[in-house]
Amino acid sequence: xxxxxxxxxxxxxxxxxxxxxxxxxxxxxxxxxxxxxxxxxxxxxxxxxxxxxxxxxxxxxxxxxxxxxxxxxxxxxxxxxxxxxxxxxxxxxxxxxxxxxxxxxxxxxxxxxxxxxxxxxxxxxxxxxxxxxxxxxxxxxxxxxxxxxxxxxxxxxxxxxxxxxxxxxxxxxxxxxxxxxxxxxxxxxxxxxxxxxxxxxxxxxxxxxxxxxxxxxxxxxxxxxxxxxxxxxxxxxxxxxxxxxxxxxxxxxxxxxxxxxxxxxxxxxxxxxxxxxxxxxxxxxxxxxxxxxxxxxxxxxxxxxx
Length: 306
Known about the structure:
Elements: H1 2-24, H2 31-53, H3 63-86, H4 90-101, H5 109-117, H6 124-145, H7 153-157, H8 164-178, H9 184-194, H10 197-208, H11 221-245, H12 251-261, H13 268-276, H14 280-305
Helix pairs in contact: 1-5, 1-10, 2-8, 2-9, 2-10, 2-13, 3-4, 3-11, 3-12, 4-6, 4-11, 4-14, 6-8, 11-12, 11-14, 12-14, 13-14
């Protein structure tokens, strides 16, 4: 349990610093926007490149990845279906679907993988799937939805290649697949810049909490409650059912997939919402509630399956 509490304590501390910064106006009126743009356009692509350039791509073919992919698609599909019926709009529904299924595999997943599962690499299948499949697809949808309908088809098809969040990890995978060793003078500056990503995202999120109302009480109440229910209960339940009944996982492998699925919505989803100017309240409140609820969810999963 120490790993779960440690991971959450670190995140809460940095978010708290961001909140104080916002409360006192230390970065001015545009501080959150600057941090968001820094993370989206520069730091996060650099971080994802450095991680995936050294990754073992054999994890792509693991049963853990298949469980992650199927459980992600299942809960995101539920939110999309409800969003279509309720006419929540493309951008809002896309952000909500991400909050329902996109787990915090980096700044929370890695320490929990180390302290609870005993191996940081066990979070790699989730990280790879999210940055190589989920993010490019979702951001392409947001890009296309935010552009004029008259935009040429060829430009729409090239949308992923114009998005830094997609280009960074794709470049890292290419480097890893080719077995290329990135020279130190190139890798070290990218690593240094990439280290800004997580604190920038958390600080921007903390700043956004300044003056915010209690979650799930405003106009976003229904989307928030749906996304949090799917993230905190639906995804780990679906992952457990698939792992046991379809893939026959038991013991440590079963614990791995359930724990990673029970992680809360990632803070960088607020960065995406802010970048595209859509459903920022939905993202902020869903992340906050799912993070709070993931503590008992992770404790229960570790106690029952560990």
